[in-house]
TrEMBL record, chain A:
Sequence ranges assigned to domain Nitrite/Sulfite reductase ferredoxin-like in this UniProt record: 52-110, 342-394
Cofactor: siroheme; [4Fe-4S] cluster
Domain Nitrite/sulphite reductase 4Fe-4S: 119-273, 406-542
PANTHER family: SULFITE REDUCTASE [NADPH] SUBUNIT BETA, SULFITE REDUCTASE [NADPH] SUBUNIT BETA-RELATED
Name of the featured protein: Nitrite/sulfite reductase
Organism listed in the record: Sphingomonas quercus
Lineage: superkingdom: Bacteria
Pfam families: NIR_SIR (PF01077), NIR_SIR_ferr (PF03460)
Keywords assigned by UniProt, alphabetized: Oxidoreductase
From TrEMBL, chain B:
Pfam family, one: DUF934
Domain of life of the organism encoding this protein: Bacteria
Name of the protein in question: DUF934 domain-containing protein
Length: 544, 141
């Protein structure tokens, strides 16, 4: 993975120094809260319901054991012994004191991590495929391009006060595991007919109160022009994105209002000028980054056979293991969704354990997924049983990847200052209702996603089943929607009818699942059946 | 209004800045003020005779002025480029990078803090209008 050189270290160290001074000026009163707010946000610090929340970037979801151990240390020393992995492949700590934030930032810098631009109206952490570099179906590793973006976007002088936040995702597989088309810019690495590497560029996707799947803006962008083209995309947005209404300020609104073709035309016009400015790093810089993502030295003799004699192990292998590109190897997803737990939460002790396993069995690499799980990307199959035993003993071997209890949920009203309703208890009740693994496996792939407010951090628009918590005359109320997808068949879920109480929505989900089981054709997922038969049979079962 | 802050050796321009509309409607003005929603590219035919462009920052959160400044510098504008309005210590380093070389803040600036902000970062990740070599170029010596 990417290692900082002296330049990278120097930049992060300067950021710590700068933020320390800004915090001092805030504490002395030299900065008003209004002036301080965007500064702390651009360093990942939010003021939540009970305390400051600190969001730390995990660039494109890749981490080393040393980095995860540092997060465990931060959890123990500055927080309450746990952290929360987010849908943006980041980690959040919920109980931080402002005066400690610069020290935590310095701790992060010591392991080549930071919280730069994890919030604020700027370019956020670039996300990617959690199986990058390991997936059997990828064309190339997308992470070197994401790292190139990280450096270009860090402290970008022109794009630090955009109309609104800006999120970019980069993938390199036909299967989209990163919800790429639900980002402000989604990039898919492809080859053209001549075999040259380049990008399909999608602009204007997003969730929030106006969910949109990003339209294609450019069919093929040559690799050498990656940065200058994105600069043009951002400049058009910075100049013409709406600033009169923060709810209409995301780039998706601009692209929607002027149309994808007109936006693309403006970008081309701007790019014709911008690409002459020398913004694109030379190929050698890309190579310098790319070699650091070279595949680890996997054992070419690693045996492909696996002893599946232990039935519990077998279930876990069936559910949580996916194919690695190298023979005798596998990709392991560590579920952070135990039945009744808080989706994405991980204790300091669990982090230490996972760090040990990554170091010993996964070439010192870990990934965070946008579905709030962790991944050991490079595991020899012969080590799977040992890993499973260690995970199982720590409550980390729930075999539920992509099943109904593998729920994405935002922190909701239990923590978040923006929330209208709680998300976590709904997730817990649904997982408990479907606690039988046999039943979950019979239902099959079902992506259920819960947000506690319209900002949609829990990706409810992209859920096969989505749940949105709202405040209805002082009562928490939950709207149910079906048919969303964050994958390569991206779509926005549709609300099915009047909302429910907390218990009511759990019942409604169960009726929807039963309806699907009654109607499905062989091999169909919930999403497929819903798309085939439409809303009506589900509506009748739920409201009838 | 706070004291003006200037990073130029020439004499400050005395002519008051006129609005974009009146600038475009008269042939001899040499100083113009751009509001944050006005298009800097309308000035490109007149860069040779412009001595001062003042760009308004009605609030520090309005980042359009950064693009306006970059566009003018990229087109070769050499005159004074002034950020006026809600100009604060923590934005000045970015403004300098986009080509602003004078500042007319509404509230006085702590000059020691400005000095620290301008000298804090040892390098820059991306090229910008200030001409600083980016880190990727410096990595190759």
């Amino acid at each position: 993975m990417y290692r900082y050189d002296d330049f990278d270290h120097g930049m992060v160290a300067a950021r710590v120094d700068e933020f320390r001074e800004q915090v001092e000026r805030r504490l002395s009163g030299a900065l008003t809260e209004d002036q301080f707010k965007p500064l702390r946000l651009m360093n990942g610090l939010y003021l939540q319901l009970h305390a400051y929340m600190y969001r730390i970037a995990v660039p494109y979801g890749t981490m080393s054991a040393r980095q995860l151990r540092k997060l465990a240390h931060i959890a123990r020393t500055y927080d309450r012994g746990y952290g929360h992995f987010t849908t943006r492949q980041n980690i959040q700590f919920n109980w931080i004191e402002l005066k400690n934030a610069p020290d935590i930032m310095a701790e992060l810098a010591s392991v080549e991590m930071h919280s730069i631009q994890t919030s604020g109206n700027c370019i956020r952490n670039t996300t990617s495929d959690q199986y990058a570099g390991a997936a059997a179906d990828e064309m190339t590793d997308p992470r070197p391009w994401a790292e190139l973006l990280r450096q270009w976007s860090t402290f970008h002088p022109e794009f630090s006060y955009l109309p609104r936040k800006f999120k970019v995702a980069v993938i390199a597989s036909a299967e989209d595991r990163a919800a790429m088309r639900l980002h402000d810019i989604g990039v898919e690495i492809v080859r053209n007919e001549a075999g040259e590497l380049g990008f399909k560029v999608f602009v204007g996707g997003g969730m929030g109160r106006t969910p949109m799947v990003a339209p294609l803006i450019r069919e093929f962008l040559p690799a050498a022009n990656f940065i200058s083209y994105l600069e043009a995309c951002l400049r058009v947005y910075n100049r013409y994105g709406r600033r009169d209404n923060m709810f209409k300020a995301r780039i998706k609104i601009l692209v929607h209002e002027i149309g994808a073709a007109e936006y693309a035309r403006q970008v081309e016009e701007e790019w014709a000028h911008v690409k002459t400015l020398g913004l694109d790093p030379p190929a050698e810089e890309f190579e310098r980054i790319a070699v650091q993502f070279a595949p680890p030295p996997l054992d070419p003799e690693a045996p492909d056979e696996l002893d599946l004699g232990d039935p519990d192990f077998r279930v876990w292998v069936d559910q949580n293991i996916v194919a690695h590109k190298a023979k005798g190897h596998a990709i392991v997803t560590i579920s952070l969704k135990p039945i009744g737990g808080i989706p994405g939460d991980c204790s300091a002790d669990q982090m230490d354990l996972i760090a040990d396993l990554a170091e010993r069995y996964s070439h010192d690499e870990l990934r965070v997924t946008h579905a709030q799980n962790l991944v050991l990307p490079h595991v020899a199959k012969r080590d799977l049983y040992t890993i499973w035993q260690a995970l199982d003993a720590a409550g980390l071997a729930t075999p539920n990847l992509d099943l109904i209890s593998d729920i994405i949920a935002c922190p909701g009203l239990d923590y978040c200052a923006l929330a209208n309703a709680r998300s976590i208890p709904v997730a817990q009740k649904i997982a408990e209702r479907f606690s039988s693994l046999e039943r979950q496996r019979d239902v099959g792939e079902l992506k259920l996603k819960i947000s506690g407010c319209i900002n949609a951090c829990g990706h409810h628009h992209a859920g096969h089943i989505g749940i949105l918590g709202v405040d209805k005359k002082g009562e928490e109320n939950y709207q149910l929607s079906f048919g969303g997808s964050g994958a390569e068949d991206a779509s926005v879920a549709k609300i099915i009818g009047p909302g429910f109480s907390e218990d009511g929505v759990v019942d409604a989900v169960e009726k929807a699942v039963e309806t699907y089981q009654a109607l499905r054709d062989p091999g169909e997922r919930f999403l497929d059946t819903y798309r085939r038969v439409g809303l009506q049979p589900f509506k009748e079962a739920i409201y009838g | 209004m706070g004291d003006a802050l200037r990073f130029r050796d020439d004499e400050p321009h005395e002519e008051p800045a006129v609005t974009l509309d009146s600038f475009l409607g008269q042939s001899n003005a040499t100083a113009v003020r751009l509001e944050s929603d006005e298009d800097a590219r309308l000035l490109l035919p007149y860069l040779d005779r412009l001595a001062l462009v003042e760009v308004a920052f009605p609030t520090f959160r309005d980042g359009r002025g950064y693009s306006a400044a970059s566009i003018l510098r990229e087109a070769g504008y050499k005159g004074e480029l002034r950020a006026q309005g809600d100009v604060l210590v923590d934005q000045i380093a970015h403004m300098r990078r986009c080509g602003f070389d004078s500042f007319a803040p509404e509230a006085p600036l702590d000059m020691a803090a400005v000095e620290r902000a301008l000298t804090r970062y040892p390098a820059r990740y991306q090229p910008a209008a200030d001409g600083t070599a980016p880190i990727w170029a410096r990595r190759r010596g």
